[in-house]
UniProtKB/TrEMBL annotation, chain A:
GO terms for molecular function: iron-sulfur cluster binding; metal ion binding. It comes from Actinomadura rubrobrunea. It comes from the Bacteria. InterPro entries: 4Fe4S_Fe-S-bd, 4Fe4S_Fe_S_CS, Helical_ferredxn. This is 4Fe-4S ferredoxin. Residues 249-281, 330-358 form the 4Fe-4S ferredoxin-type domain. It holds the Pfam family Fer4_22. Gene3D superfamilies: Alpha-helical ferredoxin. The keyword Calcium does not apply. Keywords: Iron, Iron-sulfur, Metal-binding.
Automatic annotation (TrEMBL), chain B:
It comes from the Bacteria. Residues 4-100 form the FAD-binding FR-type domain. It comes from Actinomadura rubrobrunea. Its cofactor is [2Fe-2S] cluster. GO terms for molecular function: 2 iron, 2 sulfur cluster binding; flavin adenine dinucleotide binding; metal ion binding; oxidoreductase activity. [2Fe-2S] cluster binds at residues 235, 240, 243, 251. This is Oxidoreductase. Pfam families: DHODB_Fe-S_bind, NAD_binding_1. InterPro entries: Cyt_c3_hydrogenase_gsu, Dihydroorotate_DH_Fe-S-bd, FAD-bd_FR_type, Flavoprot_Pyr_Nucl_cyt_Rdtase, FNR_nucleotide-bd, OxRdtase_FAD/NAD-bd, PyrK_electron_transfer, Riboflavin_synthase-like_b-brl.
Length: 377, 271
């Protein structure tokens, strides 16, 4: 049953701390709403919102006290679970051979406070990539296992959001321990809470709540339903996978390549992009070696390097790889789309490439080709 | 990250095959990797330099692993330079192999271009170890020049064991009396029943496309023509994303892929 938190978010923050969690959540820093460790609930971006555009991001003052009145910021939760740099092992020369050691640092026990539905789905997608196959990424799994997730339904999507058309929001899907809906009346927020796990129930027992009456629950549902109608962007719901497979030789790829800088920003901010490379090093004596795993990007020229040259040497082929993988071949590889509709790749693209616009253009090109074929004698 | 941890193997034998290619025989120092099946690969680690995927080219007496490496970059140069007694690291075996067990009773047509003979060597060795399980074995080999031909002594031995071996080179040299030209020109010499054959092809992508197409035209069913494809690999276990070829993660869904699956993907430039 849904509950109403009768005090502010401090009580929830304190309960999470008492339960031993390091609380990570949104906070304002350097002109952006970033994700970082919260020292108290006061660190939350209360009264802050964002203005988003292709290639544009600004924080703005809100005229209410909403703590979650903002949509996706520059980071997702990815760096906390799938770290940008991980030492895989180190080794020392012993005699004429070597010995490999793996460090297993105690993983932090995180509570994520304020996971939006799109990002909740993104975590589930990365789980499937890094833990769902034959081999489990144990560094990821160790961090992921103990995470406590406080999801927050989206009541105010941004200008670049399209979770509704990807089926990932604005209502939180499964996978949370607690899910909040933030309701603003008279400028100050109230929080309706749903419990998604036993751990969630235990934490909520430490927070002052009362039963949420039917009116309040209906109000929460209505706010979320209204958000679905206010998405800043839209993606065609069906047929993306086929469109990606059919469009490999379309002219639109040349057009987008004329704007794309191959910088890889989209892959860094994407909550599901998982690609990594490894770096092998030795110290100056050559007696000690290490291997590190680092985030990598399919926009880097060397990503597809073979001894004969780079397979994807043109920026066109690299953008095509990214988009067709994200929206198309991800289904073949991992059983779902790789896009959750958070819109980060639109916002943080320095030239404002908008994937929903690219998909629409590919669709138009397909329609044009189809009508051309029909028109042929 | 046990899957990311190289298992120490000692070089017990190093055979120079050509000017830039050596075959290393490796034996485990203590722990060992699982036994590779023909067509699978390992990630070979050269101390402090890095790691590359290399197809297994034979085993011999277990737990020995044999791998043929061509020096084309920093890691492969270091691997090729490894002397007997030196220690390297192996991870694996990874990927889907040729599926030799699935084609028992069939004729085998094996077509290799250059270093592509390495993963097919393990097929020949496995098939010759139990020749009654297969029909005829035909091995077509293409090399740039006679000096670039891998395993010349073994080719002779396999001939004596009944393997039909045909070799062609792009450029002949003094004393060469064999074929000159594309490997596809050898297909007409194949004395096997295409409808009762399985064909395994490994070599440069253009060679595989032309060879596979010619084999299918000769009547080998497309699902029994299998190609060993190559892409950049960083992990071998499906996490790093480098080895994508359209819908495939080649470390997981390959490196051996049926021609019917590979054909449309190879037809797209820079996929």
């Amino acid at each position: 049953m849904a509950k109403l938190m009768t005090t502010g978010l401090s009580a929830l923050y304190d309960a999470l701390r008492r339960a031993g969690y390091t609380v990570i959540g949104p906070t304002v820093r350097d002109g952006a709403i970033v994700l970082d460790e919260l020292r108290s609930a006061d660190d939350l971006p209360v009264g802050w919102g964002v203005t988003l555009a292709p290639g544009g991001y600004r924080v703005r003052r809100r005229d209410d006290q909403a703590a979650f009145g903002h949509s996706a910021g520059p980071q997702s939760w990815k760096p906390f679970l799938h770290q940008p740099r991980v030492k895989l092992w180190e080794a020392d020369r012993v005699g004429d051979g070597f010995e490999v050691r793996e460090e297993r640092p105690e993983p932090p026990r995180y509570a994520f406070l304020g996971v939006r539905p799109c990002d909740l789905r993104a975590i589930e997608i990365q789980d499937r990539v890094l833990m769902g196959g034959r081999h489990t990424d144990s560094a990821y799994a160790a961090r992921r296992e103990g995470v406590f997730i406080v999801a927050v339904d989206c009541t105010e999507p941004g200008e670049t959001c399209f979770c509704a058309s990807m089926g990932t929001g604005p209502k939180s899907g499964p996978g949370y321990d607690l899910a909040l809906t933030e309701l603003i009346d008279d400028g100050s927020p109230r929080y309706v809470v749903e419990v998604g796990s036993e751990a969630g129930s235990a934490v909520l027992a430490e927070v002052p709540t009362e039963e949420a009456d039917e009116d309040l629950q209906a109000c929460a549902r209505a706010e979320v339903a209204a958000a679905a109608e206010h998405m800043g962007r839209e993606m065609p719901a069906l047929g993306l996978r086929d469109l990606m497979a059919e469009s490999l030789d379309y002219a639109r790829w040349d057009e987008v390549a004329s704007r794309c800088l191959s910088c890889g920003n989209c892959t860094m901010v994407c909550p599901t992009c998982f690609c990594t490379t490894v770096e092998d090093t030795t110290d100056l004596t050559g007696e000690h070696a290490e291997r590190w795993q680092l985030w990598d990007s399919c926009f880097d020229l060397g990503f597809s390097h073979l001894h004969g040259g780079d397979v994807r040497s043109s920026p066109k082929s690299r953008y095509r790889q990214w988009l067709t993988h994200k929206l198309g071949t991800w289904h073949d590889q991992f059983g779902s789309s790789g896009c959750v509709g958070c819109g980060r790749c639109i916002v943080w693209c320095p030239v404002g490439i908008d994937l929903t616009e690219e998909v629409a253009a590919l669709q138009a090109e397909r329609d044009q080709r189809a009508s051309g074929e029909r028109g042929a004698p | 990250m046990a899957r990311m941890r190289p298992v120490p193997y000692r070089v017990v034998e190093r055979r120079r095959e050509t000017r830039d290619t050596v075959t290393l025989a490796l034996e485990p120092v203590a722990a060992r990797i699982a036994e590779p099946s023909p067509g699978q690969f390992t990630m070979m680690y050269a101390w402090g330099v890095g790691e590359v995927p290399v197809s297994v080219s034979g085993g011999g007496a277990k737990p020995r692993v044999e791998q043929t490496v061509r020096a084309v970059g920093a890691v492969t140069r270091a691997l090729c330079g490894a002397r007997p007694g030196e220690m390297l690291g192996l991870r694996g075996p990874f990927g889907v192999g040729w599926g030799l067990d699935e084609v028992q009773g069939f004729d085998l047509i094996l077509a290799a271009g250059g270093i592509g003979l390495a993963p097919l060597r393990s097929v020949v060795l496995r098939a010759l170890a139990d020749p009654r399980r297969y029909g005829r074995i035909v091995l077509l080999v293409g090399a740039r020049t006679p000096a670039d031909l891998l395993y010349p002594d073994e080719l002779e031995r396999w001939r004596r064991c009944g393997v039909h071996v045909e070799v062609t080179v792009d450029r002949a040299a003094a004393g060469w009396t064999g074929h000159v030209g594309l490997i596809t020109s050898l297909i007409d010499l194949v004395d096997a029943d295409p409808a009762r054959a399985a064909a395994f092809v490994c070599g440069p992508e253009i060679m595989m496309r032309l060879t596979a197409r010619a084999l299918v035209e000769r009547g080998v069913p497309p699902h029994r023509v299998r190609l060993s494809l190559e892409r950049n690999m960083r992990c071998g276990v499906g996490w790093c994303g480098h080895c994508q070829l359209g819908p495939l993660l080649l470390c997981r869904d390959g490196p051996v892929v049926p021609y019917e699956r590979a054909e449309p993907l190879m037809a797209v430039k820079e996929l």
